[in-house]
UniProtKB/TrEMBL annotation:
Highest rank taxon of the organism: Bacteria
InterPro entries hit by this protein: CHP02647 (IPR013468)
Protein name: TIGR02647 family protein
Species this protein is from: Photobacterium pectinilyticum
Cited Pfam families: DUF5669 (PF18918)
């Protein structure tokens, strides 16, 4: 299954979450770009974040971020993301 625009928006949003603390999350404001608002809602529906507007990562969300950041590092050749 190839990546589609929705998956790319979700992955771009996921890699913005901090991995160093469970006490930090993100909030996607209602006036953000519609594709980001919708990506946050889809991540919530998939059980990866705690709120429809972002919130904190769930356990599955942490795993998804780790994998998404690994792929990004491999494809871009950058060590830190």
């Amino acid at each position: 299954m190839p990546y589609n625009a929705d998956l790319v928006h979700e992955m771009n949003l996921l890699v913005k979450f901090p991995m160093h603390s469970d006490l930090e999350g993100i909030k996607v404001r209602s006036d953000a770009m519609p594709e980001l608002v919708q990506a946050a809602q889809r991540l919530y529906a998939k059980g990866l974040v705690t709120q429809e507007d972002g919130g904190y990562l769930t356990h599955s969300g942490h795993q998804a971020v780790e994998h998404a950041k690994s792929v990004l590092r491999i494809l871009t050749g950058k060590v830190a993301v």
